[in-house]
Amino acid sequence: MTIVSAVFSSASGGSSGAAMSVLCLMSTFFQALAQVIREAMFRDYSQYAEKHGYKNKKLNVFAVGSSNNTFGIIWVFPVSILIELSRTSDNVLDVMGEGFQTLLHAQGAMPAFVVFMVINVCFNITVFLLVCYGSSLLTFVCFKLSVPISAFMSLISWPLIGADTITWFEWVCLVVILAGVIIFRHGNGIRDKLEAENERLDETHNKTIPKAIICFWPIFRHRKPAREDDDPNKGVAINTAWCSPSFLSHKGSKIASETESQMTDVESEGKTFEAQLDDPVRES
Question: Compositional bias of type Polar residues: which residue ranges (predicted)?
């Protein structure tokens, strides 16, 4: 995708037309696919480690990051050569040589490059940690924060590039994306609790409380039994705004208290009936 973008940019003189917009959307697909593959890798290792009884159930993030950077170094030179071949007719090796000369001898170039490398390595490690302990979807959503945060950071006067102003639209984008990340994470938390509640109901064989049908928050559902005595998990699925762990536990305690109250009434009625039977016997 980098090579194709370089070709489009060279052909259009660097303009941002419809073709470049479509290309950016296509590159987002590959970025999302990369996060899904990473999550699958972490999950597969966890299952493998659990199966073979390994002490460390999580794949080492630093080992994954090191292998990722190693293969990145292997790939960067041929990809860079192909990009330069698509952009210019000059000798690619001469162009790369001039770039290294600038890096080594230009004022402030090497410190800036070292700072970039440190931040880039920390960024990659953070991404792997987020995929390992979160999810690929959460990582992809968090990636959307990069553009508005970059605009916000541009307010600072940086060396070499200086400072810049941002528009009100970029502030709105930052607020909307932050709200989306927070809501997404909150929905994941509720989903985890509902899954744990469903597992608990399966372990206890409790048929009085309907299990949640988990789709995505806040559209969680539970089943409504066709008749009062039927299993609620075999009824018709209905939407409900109260399908949450707290509601299920409250409903469970309410049902338990009603059942206990009914048992108490039955026991008291039984004792009254026994007393009525004893009275004629005593009179006789």
Answer: 256-265
